[in-house]
């Protein structure tokens, strides 16, 4: 295909790329170099589409940070050759991957769009075709100056384009599998694709050289506060030698039990220099530790607010910042910075 734009379609695995094998009825990944045969609609765009297939293809439950590093390197290697990148990925950890990538790609001026589907692409009622076709259209869309309309890491699903590091998987069976409750959709596909220009984040400079930062430190534990939590579990997760940072998923606006033993363990972990990040369990809203005495006590004990970041976003942000520096005080100081549109600030 000869066209004005070119897209690299990267297939990592997941439901979207499965096709029913007529011989035994099982779902198997299909050869993505044959994508035009499977989705002839793609041939109607004036876009050149090249494909890259990961080996092995994985269920996204098996995603590891090494996949994010490989994706970042692949995008870096091919950056000048393409106008945009569409990454086909399983839905289960798509929000984690999109969040992490958003922090690993610096001076991004081209779209990187994750998509997938709830039903395989070969199934008659599949949502995969619409997700794929719209993702390709958005990834190749430019303004009159030739700049990408959405130079961000995003997730496209069920007609909505969402900021990757604001997204979360909310349904295992509805076509609307993702939402970004804390941030508006960047675009919506109806009869035409309507871009929400005010919500889209443009690079500080369109000419600054694209680069990647692949150093990740994964020594993070996630603690979901719940009634009945015990000191033993708390101490294990917060104070363990192997833990450098803890995402504390707290109640409401950042609240946690006010019992003495609870706060003592938080102080013990803070005293050991751990990075303690407060993230709300709520689907939307922000941490505000000044609102209630229980939140204030956490702040005094050394916990840093994650504001309205998602857990997936917090994980990517911590992995990235800790990969950049071994200094936990520096990491804590940067948690309040809005690095890639992950918090409202
Ligand atoms: N388990 C699959 C995966 O995340 C589900 C999907 O693709 O939607 O890879």
Characteristics of this structure?
8-stranded mixed β-sheet; alpha/beta; Rossmann fold; 4-stranded parallel β-sheet; 9 helices; 2 domains; single chain; 345 residues
- What portion of residues is helical? 25-40%
Helix count from the secondary structure assignment: 9
Percent in strands: 15-25%
CATH architecture of the largest domain: 3-Layer(aba) Sandwich
The CATH first-level class of the largest domain comes to Alpha Beta
**Total domain count:** 2
Radius of gyration: 21 Å
Give a short account of the largest sheet. Answer: 8 strands, mixed
Q: Would you tell me the overall average pLDDT?
A: 94
Order of helices and strands: EEEHEHEHEEHEEEEEEEEHEHEHEHH
* Straight-line distance between termini: 43 Å
- Give the full name of the CATH homologous superfamily of the largest domain: L-asparaginase, N-terminal domain
Number of strands: 18
CATH T-level topology of the largest domain: Rossmann fold
Strands in their spatial order, largest beta sheet: 4-1-5-7-8-9-12-13
Q: Which parts are unreliable, with pLDDT below 50 for 5 consecutive residues or more?
A: none
Secondary-structure class: alpha/beta
Small molecules held by this entry? aspartic acid
Which of globular, elongated, flat, extended, rod-shaped describes the shape? globular
Task: Describe the 3D structure.
The structure is a single chain. This protein has about 350 residues and is an alpha/beta fold. It folds into 2 domains: about 5-210, L-asparaginase, N-terminal domain (Rossmann fold), CATH 3.40.50.1170; about 220-335, Rossmann fold (3-Layer(aba) Sandwich), CATH 3.40.50.40. Helix content is about 25%, strand content about 20%. The chain is built from 9 helices and 18 strands. The protein has helices at about 35-40, 65-80, 95-105, 130-140, 230-240, 260-270, 295-300, 310-325, 330-335, and strands spanning about 5-10, 20, 25-30, 45-55, 85-90, 105, 110-115, 155, 160-165, 170, 180, 185-190, 195, 210, 220-225, 245-250, 275-280, 305. It has an 8-stranded mixed sheet with strand order 4-1-5-7-8-9-12-13, sandwiched between helices. α5 links the parallel β15 (about 220-225) and β16. α5 packs parallel to α6. About 45% of the residues are buried. The model has no long low-confidence stretch (mean pLDDT about 95). The structure holds aspartic acid (ASP). The site of aspartic acid has 10 residues, from loops. Aspartic acid binds near residues 13 and 92.
